[in-house]
Amino acid sequence: MKQWVVSLIFLVLVGCGGGGGGSSAPSGPAAGSGSGSAPTSPTPSEPSAEDYEAAAVMLDLATFGVTGESLEVAAKIGPDDWLDEQFDTPPSYHLPIVYRYGSEYGYDVLNGAIPPALYRRFAFFERAFTAPDQLRQLTAYALSQILVVSDSGALGVNPVGLSSYYDTLLEHSFGNYRDLLLAVTLHPSMGFFLSHVNNAKTDTAANTFPDENYAREVMQLFSIGLYELNADGSQKRDVQGNPIATYDNEDIQEFAKIFTGLAYDSTNREPQFGRNQPVFALPMVMFNEYHEPGEKHLLNGQIVSDGQTGLEDIDDAIDNLFNHPNVGPFVGRQLIQRLVTSNPSPEYIARISAVFADNGEGVRGDMKAVVRAILTDEEIADASRVREPFRRYLAAGRALNIAPAEGYKYGVTGYIVQNLTGQMVLTAPSVFNFYSPFYRPQGGMGLISPEMQITTEDTAIGVTNVMANLVYGDAPMATHPELSPVALNLEPLVDLVDNEDVFFDQLDRLFFAGNMSDFTRTVLSEAMAELSSSPNEEKVKLSLYLSLISPEQAVFGGVQ
Amino acid sequence: MMINRRSLLRRGAQSAVSLGMSSVVPFSLLGSAGARASDDYRAVVCVLLAGGADSYNILVPRSEQAYAQYQTRRSDLALSRNDLLPLEGALDGVSFGLHPAMSSLQQRFNAGQATLVTNIGPLVEPTTRAALETGNVRLPLGLFSHSDQILSWQTATPANRAGTGVGGRMLDAMPAANAGLALAGNISLSGNNSFQAGAATGSYAVSAADGVRRIAGYENDVFRRYFDRFLEDPNTSTLRRVYGNKVQSAIDAGDVFNSALEGATALSTPFSEHYFSAAMKRIAELMSVRESLGVTRQTFFVTYGGWDHHEDTLGQQADMLPALDAGLGQFQVALEELGLSQSVTTFTISDFGRTLTSNGKGSDHGWGGNAMIMGGAVQGGQLYGHFPEQVEDNPLDVGRGRFLPSTPTDAMYAEISRWMGVAPESLGSVLPNWANFEGSTQGAGLMGMLTG
Asked: Pfam families, per this entry (chain B) (predicted)?
């Protein structure tokens, strides 16, 4: 891993002329896509403490991290209006940032030049830290852990592949799951990652058969899962009490035939089946002469007839999966786990399944309705979820106004958090994501906690070191300071520190969803007392550091 | 560095009490006092080739007719016969060769220190294709699925998800083996895994690149004091306790490891810089301080991933196998340097073998495959199990050259468990399905793979 990081740095430094381009202004996180900054509707009175707490919960769940400003806005307008505004905020895409860096450093990306892979990291962090469409960015992030692609092979080298894929998730985050499933199926990054690009029909002379990879994972992971489910997420059982498989290997081979004939598009010449140069910013195109002929058997006895085009076959197959009753509980449960709680009750899952099946206007798969239902469910009061280490880093960065240090023109890379915790967006070890949605940690009384699967002795210390690095800028921990030194703005907190109650209230709302225990408050107060003669900034840093490493902050919700 | 044993003990006791359990501690950090004699040491290293390695291109028939069958079935995935590295001897009258990247394995095999178990995979009970087709047999959950078969291989309980793995249960069955830092019994270079999960023993995760991580940053003592304070919260929740205990045990055990590692042998054996070699080097270093840690039976777990070669199988194997072969070979040399070559057995597992037939670019998910085993105790120079004839009408072929395993994983694990010192009467607790194969031809052909 280290070798790889170092060689990437080399690539960037060499590729960018050692950073000596000089003339450009520092490109700190810019304001999102220029539009949609949430306007606030006037309210007659100042928000109450309860308003702030409600805002803190919603922002904790629905953004990459609470900020002082967003807290003021959400407390004024209330969580419901805040959600409405988020749904109406236009998407802030990632690919334009890749192109922006590309043009700044002389890569003609639109004509096939491959810019440094780092640019997709700059794009992600710029959006995560500053984009106004936080709920959409977060929903896409949650989806990126269900419809997984990762930075292997060409996707680890060319930033266009992953940024374009993320943009596809963003585009459909509040759309329809059926459109999302089709767009993901046709996206060249998925075609590369699960090898259905250049997947050819059966060739009996050569003794070759359609690639089964995508056929299997689109069913197992992206839509229906392995076993028949009830709407509340529980497994259906046969008469012997065994779970009922949703498909068998013959179904896999039938769906493998469906996903034949796709190849990369081309920007500057006639596309060819089997050509090797990936074009990542355009959907894959169908070559019907390489598509498996004949009828194909889908699930539930449905058959696609002979003579359809390849894209018609894919359309039918996506419909077949999308309309399977498993999709609501299967995808819904995982979205609840990513956004709210690790052990949703069957009733919570059933409520989300019902919204997935019908948004109230007869539409199935409406993601806006699903996300809204997940984030406004009554069970949020009982939620418990170990926070992802990566999101702890993002939330701390947002609350503390993280930005590239003065004089540095590159964006944030995320290498520190990745090296120390093993987590970083779109870097899962495989299509099975960073963790299983069913992982039960030892000593957890049978509770599911996916995030504990990546919490080892190594990463448990790693994440505390991430926080030390962030707050104290500890030089030995900054593995590559030349790349991503960051600056924080602690002034808003320093201004509050003289009034301990007010200061702790703000820490509470920024990091504890307004639910900090008296116990934690007492411990923080003891620590502050040790620094009574120190400068206020040191007091702020110690309180921040201790807040960010505390088990209370590491776990959202204290019920389970 | 101070070793905070009191704290270790306190945590163990506290978590048991706070979980409301009187006798079952999730895992105890410290066993009873008193280390065992140092010459009584054995360890296994489980190398997970995550993704499902195409092991029918790692072990390839070389005899003329068998190679011709191989070539026909594999079509564009076939290796050239001339490139194969010959293995001495024969299995069922067929001679074999290894992938050209596997020269260390070839050398160790021919020197009698390595072998492969052929067409091995998860089974619940003796299984035929006929029984499979009539549904008249218990089968592993989620056949051909990555997430299921990777668990089946690690747990050897393919029909249920008991939550424990083979390595964890092996150490559970030898409670007296690790008198010192019990947490050091199972050491993972690749994070949490199912192989090392035991009912009574946990595992300890070390970074392959950075070893045992230390608390860094500003004012360690402040961290320690206040982290301890946080853990005193009387009203904390289960997940917060699980999380907090993980951090606390990481800190405490980290002290013990770091203190022990100050006495680690500086290995003169050269290791290459690849991640897998770095991990194997860490393992050798950790083995060199086994006495300081007070352990006599250990399992190590390391994942080398990226073997799901639906595409470009030949190219990707040519890229990835050299690092596997180098890491295994370098590790064996290091063990000789440490005087541990007879005491350590290394083996590979993978999600599954793959289809013999091609999808035009690579191969798809299969079932049985070939596992590699290396070490001084291995009775190498010969292959074990039964290699399936690579013809279309082989009754073991359940489609496209997916082979029903001739040998259950339990057979290999039984050999390893017995060699590690699991008593015959305890074998059932390690391998609950092994008794199902008694008197069956499936699994009978393996005894004697490990000696000493």
From this structure: DUF1501
Number of inter-chain CB pairs under 8 A, A vs B: 238
Residues of B in contact with A551 (CB under 8 A): 230-231, 233, 236, 240-241, 243-244, 247
Considering only CB atoms, B242 lies closest to which of A432, A443, A467, namely A443
Separation between Cα atoms, residue A214 and residue A235, nearest integer Å: 24
Could you tell me which residues come within 8 angstroms of residue B219 by beta carbon, excluding any fewer than 6 positions away?
none
The residue of chain A nearest to residue B148, with distances taken between CA atoms, is A226
Residue spans of chain A under pLDDT 70: 1-44, 474-484
For residue B420, the surrounding DSSP H or E stretch is helix B409-420
**pLDDT in the model for residue A434:** 97
The encoded tokens of residue A318 equal 């996506």
Report the chain A residue with the minimal C-alpha distance to residue B207.
A458
**For residue A479, with 0-12 CB atoms within 10 Å meaning exposed, 13-18 middle and 19 or more buried, which class applies?**
middle
One-letter identity of residue A308: Q
Residue A487, SS3 per DSSP = strand
pLDDT in tens, B309-338: 999 999 999 999 999 999 999 999 999 999
Query: Which residues are CB-contacts of A258 (< 8 A; sequence separation ≥ 6)?
Result: A215, A292, A296, A304, A313, A314, A317
The Cα A353–Cα A357 span in angstroms is: 6
pLDDT in tens, A193-219: 999 999 999 999 999 999 999 999 999
Q: CA B141, CA A432: separation in Å to the nearest integer?
A: 17
Cβ atoms of residues A469 and A477 within 8 Å: yes
Which pLDDT tens digit goes with each residue over B392-443? Answer: 999 999 999 999 999 999 999 999 999 999 999 999 999 999 999 988 888 6
- Residue B249: φ, ψ to 5°: -70, -30
Q: Please answer yes or no on whether B218 and A545 come within 8 Å at the CB atom.
A: yes
Asked whether the beta carbons of residue A436 and residue B147 sit closer than 8 angstroms, the reply is yes
Contact A472 B217 (CB under 8 A): yes
| Rounded Cα gap, residues A387 and A374, in angstroms | 17
Say what the pLDDT of residue A70 is: 97
Q: Vertex B153, ends B147 and B157: CA angle to 5°?
A: 95
Contact across the interface for A558 and B207, Cβ inside 8 Å? no
Q: A83: which 2 tokens? A: 């959600």
Q: Tell me how far apart the alpha carbons of residues B141 and B152 are, in angstroms, rounded to a whole number.
A: 8
Q: What is the pTM assigned to this prediction?
A: 0.91
For residue B289, which of B248, B256, B241 has the smallest C-alpha distance? B256
| pLDDT given for residue A371 in this prediction | 98
Which single residue is written with the structure tokens 């010459």? B39
Tell me how far apart the alpha carbons of residues A279 and A352 are, in angstroms, rounded to a whole number.
Answer: 37
